[in-house]
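TEACHING EXERCISE
Course module: macromolecular assemblies
Task: Read the component lines below, then compare them to the predicted structure of the full complex.
Student: A.B.
Group: 4
Components provided:
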Amino acid sequence: QKEVEQDPGPLSVPEGAIVSLNCTYSNSAFQYFMWYRQYSRKGPELLMYTYSSGNKEDGRFTAQVDKSSKYISLFIRDSQPSDSATYLCAWDNYGQNFVFGPGTRLSVLP
Amino acid sequence: DADVTQTPRNRITKTGKRIMLECSQTKGHDRMYWYRQDPGLGLRLIYYSFDVKDINKGEISDGYSVSRQAQAKFSLSLESAIPNQTALYFCATSDPGQGPLQHFGDGTRLSIL
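Instructor-supplied answer key:
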């Protein structure tokens, strides 16, 4: 089993839609759960992170973590064309090793 | 100016050539990382360094070497490039006091013919 699996995409949605991006993981040692956003020809940038089960909200973005199921999600409300990017889930193993999912490419159509 | 600068941004070279990718940072961070990104595989860690005297292998270090010349500089070398090393390479930095936040450069697109 791969250490991290992510919905492959690509995903196209109309502007204003609610987007759900999902990842599963197998390593129980992961401490931090993160979402990175990567625009074309740019490096990834940290969007959100959490270290506990439950929801964390930041504007239009909500990160959801379920440690018992080893499942994390990112929800984007009122999606905008500027949200078009590749979204990478990631985990931090106590600062020793960052593990990234393969990414889901999202296109928000005007 | 960018906090994490990678040079070159693009490179095309031939099989068997030695290649060096360079990374410099102005963040003042001790920790630096090299990743490669391939379609469908995401980012995979090649090497990481927690300070100038500390170098560690990552998930896919075979065929690569690194040098940490100073706190601000971390270079990645391919001693004898092969076509399956064609990928997008990223350098990143982090400060353990900032949690899991990593700062990435804009990448080097490397093609090996």
